[in-house]
Design a protein that fits this description.
65% of the residues lie in helices and 4% in strands. It is mainly α and 394 residues long. It is globular and about 80 Å long.
Length: 394
């Protein structure tokens, strides 16, 4: 909105004595300026609205009235503060601020519209799940099958829509002076490999679905300790803030030999808004948390990262940057798979980890909650550095 208003004023005053006065509005043409503005706006709005949202959640009794699974084991009781009674569904704050800030600072192109649509759909799914848990409806939340069906339908819709779009990206290869043009489905970039991979439509559709569904659920599984999920999301968002800017810049993308996606620069504004909203939420979510994001926030934020990665041909880089999310999801899959396998073979289910997701495993090993969160932040930062290095190490 700010971009369109600034351009309207510049055009209106062009050739008049007011032209010089309004000339600073040209700054709104720069993605870097609008990204900075989006981050600051989102942070300020989060700080301002945070206490109001917490009060609102308490008034409607949207609070966690059950003990966290990690608290149910006696050996953790001395190290884990009770989370019972803490307002949940705080993801409403993140998504509300993220959406408003993006609309204010970004140009409304197809990529932004698809991303915001995905975020809102996943927010609605998460809200329903959280509300059902709080009110003890539908057996205490949406079933895993219902979540998966909605996520897959959304991912396939996005994938098919992108497939039907005209050519939206270009990759120039200096060695043979050729330019490869494609839509956002059939071509993928593989980390540490120089040239694009023509995956084909079917493989591309499956990769998109896997990226969106996998990322959404992985962030959801990570949301188990104060500040863990949102802090890691901030770090991964920073990675994609860099990648979207590179992808949206014709000259830089050409130099680094990554696909130039038309309009991807606006996703930089979205990532900046997500960082600002995330930092504002972390202010209230750090240990001991004043509110939790719940599925309302975690499903949407994970899905947003997956969508952004897909839109710039970099779903595999998301696996690296989101290494902590991958660890969390893999620990649950391995734990459940091994338990079922050993129960079927021996009659007694066995576990790989003391508790899954893996952050609870380390709690049971004797780490305090703040230790787990801080050390996972460090791991996430290391994964982020590796992900950024894929721009040059190929």
């Amino acid at each position: 909105m700010f971009y369109y208003l600034s351009q309207w004023l510049l055009n209106l005053t062009a050739g008049t004595p007011w032209a010089e006065t309004f000339s600073p509005l040209r700054l709104f043409r720069y993605i870097t300026f609008r990204s900075a503005g989006a981050a600051i706006t989102a942070l300020a709005l989060s700080w301002w609205l945070g206490p109001k949202v917490i009060t609102w959640l308490k008034q409607f009794k949207f609070d966690q009235d059950y003990a966290d699974k990690a608290e149910e084991t006696g050996d953790l009781a001395a190290r884990v503060l009770s989370k019972k009674g803490t307002p949940t569904m705080g993801g409403i704050l993140i998504i509300m601020v993220l959406t408003l800030t993006t609309l204010l600072w970004a140009q409304w192109n197809t990529l932004i519209q698809l991303t915001l649509l995905s975020v809102l759909v996943l927010t609605a799914l998460g809200f329903y799940d959280d509300y059902a848990k709080i009110t003890k409806q539908s057996g205490g939340g949406a079933t895993a099958r219902v979540k998966l069906i909605v996520q897959i339908i959304l991912a396939l819709f996005v994938a098919l829509y992108l497939w039907k779009l005209p050519v939206t990206s270009e990759l120039r290869i200096p060695e043979n002076k050729t330019a490869i043009t494609s839509n956002l489905v059939s071509v993928m970039m593989v980390p540490f490999y120089k040239y694009p991979i023509h995956a084909g439509v079917v493989v591309g559709l499956l990769l998109i679905a896997f990226a969106v569904v996998g990322s959404s659920n992985a962030v959801n599984l990570t949301d188990g300790l104060d500040g863990l999920a949102i802090g890691c999301t901030l770090i991964v968002s920073l990675v994609f803030l860099v990648l979207t800017y590179v992808s949206g810049h014709a000259e830089i993308s050409k130099y680094l030999q990554v696909p130039h996606v038309i309009g991807a620069g606006e996703l930089t504004v979205f990532c900046a808004a997500m960082m600002g909203a995330g930092m504002g939420f972390l202010w209230f979510n750090c240990h001991p948390a004043q509110m939790f994001m719940g599925d309302t926030g975690s499903l949407a934020l994970g899905g947003a990262l997956g969508i952004v990665a897909v839109l710039i041909h970099q779903p595999f880089v998301l696996v690296i940057a989101g290494g902590v999310f991958v660890m969390e999801a893999a620990s649950v899959i391995l734990q459940r798979g091994w338990f079922r396998y050993t129960r079927r073979r021996t009659g007694t289910g066995r576990r790989i980890f003391l508790m899954a997701p893996i952050h609870h495993h380390f709690e049971k090993k004797g780490w305090y909650e703040s230790q787990v969160v801080t050390r996972f932040y460090i791991l996430c930062a290391l994964f982020a550095v590796i992900a950024i290095s894929t721009l040059k190490i190929r």
